[in-house]
Write a structure and sequence with these properties.
118 residues; mainly beta; seven-stranded mixed beta sheet; 11 strands; globular
Length: 118
């Protein structure tokens, strides 16, 4: 599976962005997720969606970010609202079929930069 992320950009604090990740083939049975990596920091989990529609979020984004998916389009999204400067990072989409949110994500997109100015 190849993943292509898009939608990053520069936004002011309090603004919104929607990231998209399109897969090269059907991923309806996969767990899909978004991770992010800020400068000088390790990559961290942001949000995930299971094949059955369950969603999981890091505490730092809960209530502001929403992960969703369109199985007909082989695409999943990350709607980011009320963005904060600390959300600035490269965002990566990922997918796996290990069956667990904490499992190994074997498929990764190339990353898209999100910059939030204060």
């Amino acid at each position: 599976v190849q993943l292509q992320a898009s939608g990053g950009g520069l936004v002011q604090a309090g603004g919104s962005l929607r990231l998209s990740c399109t897969a090269s083939r059907r991923i309806s049975s996969y767990i899909v997720a978004w991770f992010r990596q800020a400068p000088g920091k390790e990559r961290e989990f942001a949000a995930a969606s299971t094949w059955s529609g369950g969603t999981f979020y890091a505490d730092s984004v809960k209530g502001r970010f929403t992960i969703s998916r369109s199985n007909t389009k082989n695409t999943f999204y990350l709607q980011m609202n009320n963005l904060k400067p600390e959300d600035t990072a490269v965002y990566y989409c990922a997918a796996q079929n290990d069956g667990s949110i904490s499992g190994n994500y074997g498929y990764w997109g190339q990353g898209t930069q999100v910059t939030v100015s204060s």
